[in-house]
Amino acid sequence: FGSSCGLEFPPRRSVRRPKAAMASATGELTEGAKKVLDEADELLCGFCALQILDQDGYVRKQKGSSIEAPFHMVSSTADSVVLESTFPLNPLFYLQVVNEPENYFFGRFWFGDPKWSRTNQICTLIPKDCQVIHSQIGDSSEFTAEAEVPFLKGATSRRVPVKVAVKEQRFVTKVVSVSVTIPKAAWLEWKQYRLKLWRSSKTWAGEDKDKEDEDKEKAEKKDD
User: How many distinct helices (H) and strands (E) make up the chain?
Assistant: First the structure.
């Protein structure tokens, strides 16, 4: 049709998908993806931050209203993983569970980076009324809370349990440890979602490459 009308069309060009993207589509993992997935949790590290919020969701300005520490995986079984942070009984830097109205206990766990972000979050504690916490503590030295793992499908109905240990020091109830127990299936789902985030930012930029591709590019540069 084009020739009979005197028109010439350029030859159709095939769209070539990056090899890394094809590998992702077929379920194969590149070396970079394997490191991100970290099946054995060898690279797992991160932080936990706890805060006391007012009724408007702002952090209290008084001493003893926020604290932060690294977390460690203290248990990993076929059923669940447990992440835990511990805090010293410090006279200046501590978190006090105040027995006052309109104050809420809140916290976050996140992976890797020094600061929390939407792409490195693990779980977020559901704010809990501090007066309810005090009634729950009673004569014990711990209380429970719940956390949401945002990367999970149907996260709002799949909250995970949080256990917080406290110690009374000079009539101040201080947090000394916090641990979150995540079911193994949810943990693996969180890791898969994190891998998707990484792929979406790296694959199409050509940064998620197999070693074979990297060696080929190096060889081509030498030839040039």
Answer: 5, 9
